[in-house]
From TrEMBL, chain A:
Sorted UniProt keywords: ATP-binding, Nucleotide-binding, Transport
Family of this protein: Belongs to the ABC transporter superfamily.
Superkingdom, taxonomy of origin: Bacteria
Keyword Transport: yes
Entry-linked Gene3D superfamilies: P-loop containing nucleotide triphosphate hydrolases
Location of the AAA+ ATPase domain: 47-233
Protein name stated in the entry: ABC transporter ATP-binding protein
TrEMBL record, chain B:
Protein name per the record: ABC transporter permease
UniProt-listed SUPFAM superfamilies: MetI-like
Organism whose genome encodes this protein: Svornostia abyssi
Domain of life: Bacteria
Lineage, top ranks: Bacteria, Bacillati, Actinomycetota, Thermoleophilia, Solirubrobacterales
UniProt region (Disordered), positions on chain: 192-235
Amino acid sequence: MTPADTAQPEGPKASVSAEPLEFRAATKRYPGSGVAAVDALSLEVPAGEICVLVGPSGCGKTTAMRMVNRMIDITEGDILLGGRSVRDRQEAELRRHIGYVIQQIGLFPHRTIAENIATVPRLLGWDRTRVTARVDELLELTGLGTEIGGRYPAQLSGGQRQRVGVARALAVDPPLMLMDEPFGAIDPINRDRLQNEFLRLQAQLRKTIVFVTHDIDEAIKMGDRIAVMREGGRLAQYATPAELLAHPADDFVREFVGADRALKRLALQRVRDVALHRAPLILEDGSPADTSGEPDIAYDLVVDADGRPLRWGTDGAVHRVEEDDTLRDALSGLLQSDVQYGAVVDASGVVTGVISIDLIHDLVQREEPV
Amino acid sequence: MTTPGSPQYEGFFRDRAASDADCVANNGVCPDWIAANLDRYVDPFLEHVWLVVASVACGLLIAFPLAVLAYRRRWLVAPIANVTGILYTIPSVAAFFLLLPITGRGALTAIVALTAYTLLILFRNVLEGLDAVPDEARDAGRGMGLTPRQLLWRVELPLALPAIMAGLRIATTTTVGLAALAFFARRGRTGRAAGGRQGVQEQRHRRRRALRDPRHRPRPDDPARTARDDAVDPCEGGDVTATLAALGSFGDGVDFLVRERQGRGGGDVGGLGQTWELLWGHLKLSFAAMVAACAVALPLGLVLGHTGRGGFLAVSVANIGRAVPSIALIFVFFAWFGAGFVNVMLALALLAIPPILTNTYVGMREVEREVVDAGRGMGMGAGRLIWSVELPLALPLIMAGLRVSAVNVVATATIAPLAGFATTLGDPIINAGVYGDEGRIGAAMLVALVAIATELLFGLAQRAVTPAGLKLSRGTQRRRLNVINRRVPTTP
């Protein structure tokens, strides 16, 4: 793993891989206040994963995040980035190698977009050509287009400004990014788009990311791991989204993730990932189309020569479910069509199995003993 | 109300000059004399109060309807703000003398001039107060069926009242200061003594006696030959030509500036040479004072603004600075430290510090917190953060502060001759005995021009230093209409 503090001279592509982050009983106590803002927070974020800090307002999630780049000083405990304590590093040097995105973005209004993105590279003393190349690369990467570089923040839409904020944070390819409600000030439709865009970007870049939000749905969508925090800066639960939804640690987490957590869990799983029913497949002439495996339902599914479903038995209309759908969407479709079974098809329309409302029900029940 | 002609009024100057000169000369400030003669302050004090109250009342009477009108018809804001702004810029001493030919000698001139100064402050505060009314309150009122008039009286004005009261407060403190100069308006061409000049040198006493009593008037070979001589009718001594006669007194004034003539005390006055000399002295003094003020106020304001500490100090300095009349400050300095370029310059610098300090502080604090946070989060050190983020963003407000100070200094430099530095444009205004009335009018016009030019120049500079990206983001009406440029804080 390359140390974060070497600004590599080879060129804009010079990549620093992600580094793991570890909170070790990190505590923040403000003088004159009896309660800790962050109370002995311990968690590990593996390199290249998104860790979402989520909780009600005042739970210390932003404070915890800001302790990482020492915008807020740690009172007790420690935070290790790539195995090195952040307390051992110079503040400015540390921050220059940690991407930082905040809700209001904080673009410099008197600087052009290109100059904004170039802030940290310039602080690190990159030469002009390298800075220009990197800025153009980032503008392309974030889908803004290089022609936007000469404009000022005031001339951009909220979504564009948000992308610039991300581009600016990525400028020196930092091993860690801190994001404080980065999509908080954006309307729901654009937020969804930006989230998807960011997830695609992350799939490519594989940064370690600490992501703060108060929105549990965003947390479930964005997080590889979710740290639910509660009043007094205490960690209520740290788990993967599925685990969190299936087994909330206590009543606080259960309430926080919401009464619809069963549905949220279904939203996390795709149809193709579950064990489906198998129906006897027959061709139109009545001969069996597929003999592999033992059918576990009694209804015949008639398929054409390529394996595309045609009807149930003699005249039953077939409800199709895409295997890329989430279980939640599949359930919704079944309920809406008022059918018990749906034929699961792949991208080319070939049947891969059968899903039923009971099957989904069983999945939910199996993972969550009441 | 005592008039300039009454015995007591006259005695105010004579007694001090004749019997207590030593005290004043040796000790500067002379508390014993003040205590012993307290009764002499009563009438001027009452007159002062009356002038202030009348002027602020007149100002409100004019500014309030204007502001309400402009509030409804937005396009009126810029013209009204500009006109009142120019009025505000004209130095008060000059204004008094420019008004003399029109309104005559006396309280009317003083009130007209003082009222003019309150207009900008009152107009802006009333408008800002109305603008600050929350949209939802206005909307709810309209939704419940209030007519525009009812909306104004029942919703908007009550909500704007704090800002309006703040405007009245600022206008009053400003006027209290300016009214101290109103004695100029009272004096007219037979002026009593040399304004508020406090004699410290024997030569001055002689001059003063000469002014009051023709018997003491110096002979041509007298060492005090340059003494001011008020007794001659200005029309006799003037070398007025017909070309400018059409403009009346103002034409005479222009004539004075370009043409040399025989002064009343003998010697040549007027003409381009002397005009230039006085103008140059005026600008030199103002510039030196501004440089000194900047050297103190800018670094202090930047550091205080960056750290966010000392906000109370910055605001207090501004409020005190606004409340202390410049003429009083000049005289206190004069009394303590004596006459001379450096002392007058320091007094002016002291006058210039509050607006620069406050605006620098406020400008730094008004940089959006998330921008500063982002800068810090990216690893900018304090120095770099100030220099490349906070300062550029605060620059427009800082320039606005410089503008207020510069105009103020240029205006106040006019009364520098009262404090012993004679080479400013104020000399012909204050010592009309030497320069004649046309000299006084001419100099007053020039001072007004210099002040307005300063205002416009700094206005341009302010535009020039406003970062391009910032101009783009100033979409809101308030900012576009210049209302924030010359900041008159509406909160304590």
